């Protein structure tokens, strides 16, 4: 049986969250609207019309929730700062209540001996900035830099661990190309301009944190998925390569100073020319102390000439009769190992932290308990794969489970439950699931 001490005594065990998914009070205490507030208020955008204004009410309950982090035995708590709680209009006037709130959250962590990890951008752009074009507008970079400076100066004495951006591919693709996440924009030109400005913001944010905070440990996070070809035909193999460029390589490579991976996907060549990305190669680059990897599933793809641009199509886990979670995401711990290996093979990746990993299931409360045996099995499989990678010398320094408690799962609303703690969204009652108790025991082992 795997033990937490197998990973070494300095390995960092944590649990991750994000502001928009847990805080609630979305239009209270001086907070300005974010793109998620606007998006969720529109009909048809969130499953079952679920609303984002209360979620887990963490704003009022953070003390109890941080106490739960302690009870479960995690050493670190990852949370994000809602930009529009600090700057209601994205820039200009600062909201003192917002500033105070995050001081309180940080102080509560520190009092419990829990190390705070702060994410600066976890998808909740101030609506006022979206009204100026959001991530597609060049003016976003100055606004983001100011926001980063304010947070660094305000909290940098107490907090040393920072994550600049959560999954740049996640929000640029879902929010600016496919339109299924906020702000609901579509099309390639929106996507590529969001990619360009995000890549700049990521590096510039890192540089600001470095300049403002002594002894800062600075990272950023990337979503990643092993991409497998459905068959060994040339067409499927090339399709898998293109999807790999898009989903895995698009942001890490400019961050490492390698530019965008256009040699393996010609569409990126046009983007490079349009945005003159080669001129910015140094601006995209930053020497992060750690790279956060977030993995949930591998993807199996096949060539499909009818899909514009990428010409690839996912062959779902269900149709291949593979085990999958309630999201339909394939459970495949070998692919977790393989994708960590892929990212470890970049010579300049010095430290890898798994900043998110977890699974949604159709949990049920029975006799005051949530017996989520499948989630326990998921964690056991994935942690074993992680240990294998670590023992083979891949530079893995920590792991954060997604997520502390069931929360607002973006376009899925409250239907997808990823928590180690069950949330009753009517009463806000928290109930530690069996997987939470499993973690508690594991972290003592
Ligand atoms: C995001 C989280 C999200 C999780 C599960 C990650 O892409 O960072 O905010 O809840 O995946 O979908």
TrEMBL record:
Principal EC category: hydrolase
Keyword annotations of the record: Carbohydrate metabolism, Cellulose degradation, Glycosidase, Hydrolase, Polysaccharide degradation
Catalytic activity entry: Hydrolysis of terminal, non-reducing beta-D-glucosyl residues with release of beta-D-glucose
Enzyme Commission code(s) on record: 3.2.1.21
Lineage top rank: taxon: Bacteria
InterPro entries, per database record: GH (IPR017853), Glyco_hydro_1 (IPR001360), Glyco_hydro_1_beta-glucosidase (IPR017736)
Pfam hit, one: Glyco_hydro_1
Keyword Hydrolase: yes
NCBIfam families linked to this entry: BGL (TIGR03356)
Alphabetized PANTHER family for the sequence: GLYCOSYL HYDROLASE (PTHR10353), LP05116P (PTHR10353:SF36)
Family, similarity comment: Belongs to the glycosyl hydrolase 1 family.
This protein's name: Beta-glucosidase
Organism in which the protein naturally occurs: Pedobacter mendelii
């Amino acid at each position: 049986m795997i033990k937490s001490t197998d990973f070494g005594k300095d390995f960092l065990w944590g649990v991750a969250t994000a502001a928009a998914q847990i805080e609630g009070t979305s239009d209270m205490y001086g907070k300005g609207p974010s793109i998620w507030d606007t998006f969720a208020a529109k009909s048809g955008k969130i499953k079952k019309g679920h609303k984002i204004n209360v979620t887990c009410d963490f704003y009022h309950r953070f003390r109890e929730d941080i106490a739960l982090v302690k009870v479960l035995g995690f050493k670190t708590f990852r949370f994000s700062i809602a930009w529009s709680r600090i700057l209601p209009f994205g820039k200009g006037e600062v909201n003192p209540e917002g500033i105070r709130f995050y001081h309180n959250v940080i102080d509560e962590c520190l009092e419990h001996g829990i190390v705070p990890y702060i994410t600066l951008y976890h998808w909740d752009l101030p609506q006022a900035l979206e009204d100026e074009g959001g991530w597609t507008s060049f003016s976003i970079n100055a606004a983001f830099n100011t926001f980063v400076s304010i947070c660094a100066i305000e909290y940098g004495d107490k907090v040393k661990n920072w994550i600049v951006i959560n999954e740049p591919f996640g929000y640029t693709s879902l929010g600016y190309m496919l339109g299924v996440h906020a702000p609901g924009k579509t099309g390639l030109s929106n996507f590529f301009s969001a990619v360009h400005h995000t890549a700049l913001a990521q590096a510039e944010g890192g540089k600001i944190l470095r300049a403002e905070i002594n002894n800062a440990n600075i990272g950023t996070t990337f979503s990643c998925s092993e991409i497998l070809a459905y068959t060994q035909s040339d067409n499927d193999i090339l399709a898998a390569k293109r999807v790999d460029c898009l989903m895995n390589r698009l942001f890490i490579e400019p961050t490492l100073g390698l530019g965008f991976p256009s040699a393996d996907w010609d569409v990126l060549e046009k983007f490079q020319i349009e945005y003159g990305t080669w001129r910015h190669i140094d601006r995209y680059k930053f020497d992060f102390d750690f790279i956060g990897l977030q993995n949930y599933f591998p993807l199996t793809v096949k060539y499909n000439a009818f899909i514009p641009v990428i010409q690839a199509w996912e062959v779902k886990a269900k149709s291949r009769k593979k085990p999958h979670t309630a999201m339909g995401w394939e459970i495949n711990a070998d692919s977790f190992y393989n994708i960590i290996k892929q990212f470890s093979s970049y010579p300049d990746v010095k430290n890898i932290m798994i900043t998110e990993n977890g699974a949604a299931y159709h949990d049920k409360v029975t006799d005051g308990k949530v017996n989520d045996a499948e989630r326990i099995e998921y964690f056991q499989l994935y942690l074993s794969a992680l240990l294998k990678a670590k023992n083979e010398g891949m530079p893995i320094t920590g792991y954060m489970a997604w997520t502390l408690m069931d929360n607002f799962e973006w376009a899925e609303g409250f239907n997808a439950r990823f928590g180690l703690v069950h949330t009753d969204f009517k009463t806000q009652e928290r109930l530690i699931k069996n997987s939470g108790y499993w973690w508690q025991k594991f972290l003592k082992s």
